[in-house]
Write a structure and sequence with these properties.
The protein has 3 domains: 77 residues, no CATH class; 41 residues, no CATH class; 112 residues, no CATH class. It is an alpha+beta fold. Strands 7-11-12 form a 3-stranded antiparallel beta sheet, with no helix packed on it. It has 12 helices and 12 strands.
Length: 326
């Protein structure tokens, strides 16, 4: 069987595109093969019978190399072709699609449609894939059933899944967690709320203790350095620390009379009193920690999220929830 002669220059002129790389040349040949029946037959014949290239003198090497590649790929493709079993002819020449199956290595049989196979004739390319249409219809119905609802707040969600380590969320900052542990917190969100609930009692106890101070005592010697009298305070040791403590006690009592007194505001006064009233600063620190925790829990509990709920079109059962962004 004689080899087919391929006029390279003629193919190059028919391509009518700029060629800089072998890939561009291969794409130009692919387009010619699809659009020009004469080129298609020539290349297929060359792939079956063998070929020689002629008229290569004034053609880019990339285009010539692309011809070799194209014929090699076409030869492999033609070698894999088998008689089609996609179509059978019924009565009066009417074409019908034959049902085919494919068995997986696991032994499961699947229905094979014409659009699952490599098309050999253009008429099969127009077959509509009913599975894709069904999937599109299901997805459209699925999206149409979306509902907007209010989801749980981060705190509620964390409480719900607290016992499941896979879903646990660390909502408490590390520095605050360490301070809470000093107050006896066991690390659970349920007990944290109970600890925060002691805040009003601690605040009242702190104010009551401040009001009940009747003497300032030197820790080292145990002697009273200032004593409260009906007419005011009698200072027995006139050091700067003692005088500052007496003045700070008056300012502290005035500050605590306000409904919205703040720990940062009264902290300097308590610092002056601490050398003579042990434990007062620890009580104030506990109040500050619990106030910060209460604010955090309030914020986490208020931040309820709006979510979109998607339901199964056939059963109506919620199958997916996603938060609304923005």
């Amino acid at each position: 069987m004689d080899k087919v002669k391929i006029p390279v220059l003629a193919l190059r002129q028919a391509a009518q595109v700029e060629v800089r790389t072998a890939e561009e040349a291969l794409e130009a040949l692919r387009k010619l093969w699809r659009e020009d029946e004469g080129v298609k037959k020539l290349l297929e014949q060359a792939a079956r019978q063998g070929y020689t290239l002629v008229q290569t003198r004034d053609v880019e090497p990339a285009f010539t190399a692309a011809i070799h590649t194209a014929i090699l790929r076409l030869r492999k493709r033609l070698g894999e072709e088998k008689p089609s079993t996609l179509v059978v002819t019924g009565g009066k020449g009417k074409e019908e699609r034959k049902v085919m199956t494919w068995e997986s290595p696991e032994g499961v049989q699947y229905r094979v449609e014409p659009y699952d196979l490599t098309p050999r004739e253009e008429k099969y390319w127009s077959y509509r894939d009913k599975r894709v249409e069904d999937a599109e219809r299901w997805l459209r119905d699925f999206l149409a059933m979306a509902e907007i609802e209010e989801g749980p707040s981060p705190l509620e969600e964390a409480l719900e899944h607290e016992d499941n380590p896979h879903f646990r969320r660390d909502l408490i900052p590390e520095d605050l967690e360490a301070e809470l542990q000093l107050l006896g917190w066991d690390g659970t969100l349920r007990n944290l709320q109970a600890l925060v609930d002691t805040l009003p009692t601690r605040e009242e106890e702190f104010k009551r203790r401040v009001r009940s101070i009747t003497a300032l005592v030197d820790r080292r010697g145990g002697a009273e350095v200032a004593v409260k009298t009906p007419n005011g305070w009698e200072v027995k040791a006139t050091s700067r620390a003692v005088v500052n403590a007496v003045l700070s006690l008056g300012l502290l009592m005035n500050a605590l009379e306000k409904e919205d007194w703040r720990t940062g505001e009264v902290r300097p006064y308590v610092k002056d009193l601490e050398p003579f009233v042990p434990g007062l600063m620890a009580s104030l620190n506990a109040i500050a920690v619990l106030r910060r925790t209460k604010y955090l829990l309030d914020e986490l509990g208020r931040g309820r999220r709006v979510v979109v709920v998607y339901r199964d079109p056939s059963t109506g059962e919620p199958v997916y929830r996603t938060p609304v962004i923005g």
